[in-house]
Amino acid sequence: MLQKNSVPSNSSVLSENGSDPILLERVLTRRSLSPMRLVEPGPTQKEIELMVSAALTAPDLGAVRPWRFISIDQAARDEITKIVSEAKARRGSNGRGSAVESERGHGARAPVQIAIIACLDPEHVDVPILQQYISVGAALQNMLLSADILGYGAMILSGDEMRDPDVIKALNVRWNEKLVALVCLGTCPRPAKPKRRLKVADHLTVWCGSNE
Fold this sequence. Notes:
This protein is an alpha+beta fold. The chain has helices spanning 10-17, 21-29, 45-55, 77-92, 97-108, 129-149, 165-170, and strands at residues 2-4, 67-71, 112-119, 153-157, 177-186, 205-207. A four-stranded antiparallel beta sheet has the order 2-3-5-4, with helices on one face. The radius of gyration is 20 Å and the shape is globular. The N and C termini lie close together (5 Å).
């Protein structure tokens, strides 16, 4: 039997267990920010390494380590953005030049881009592909949360263009890997509009056993 769970307020939970309210509030209010809104400065190399370090703490059944990360050098940012935007235009914009230019500017505006690669082992006897993808997703979320805590805005660029042969070739994605997304990072000069929080009660139930 499943039943809706009553959810206490954030403030009451924090006051009871002594947790850091500021840190948890950053987690609760994190939101994606369009690359068009992100400006310099972006994360430094040390901050990028810190975000990747946070990503590496993600749950990883069997220690498969099903991930790797590619930091796009600033000098190569326009090149990869051009390749990705042209791939998107071919797939969904009927080849219109204006669509290519718009998409190119959309991604190139972000000061930092990091490619997220899933390094999958389809023959692993204990860890199915789905579980490996879950680990990659958890690593990605850790990266986004750490970026927010460091004061940077971020957004994931994904879609069919991440499976485009030209994009895959440019980033040297191997036969057993999947390009999951490009993470765009930078500073948001103006406060972002708060994201509407979903109601926990709409997504959380309590299982009370199979006999009820």
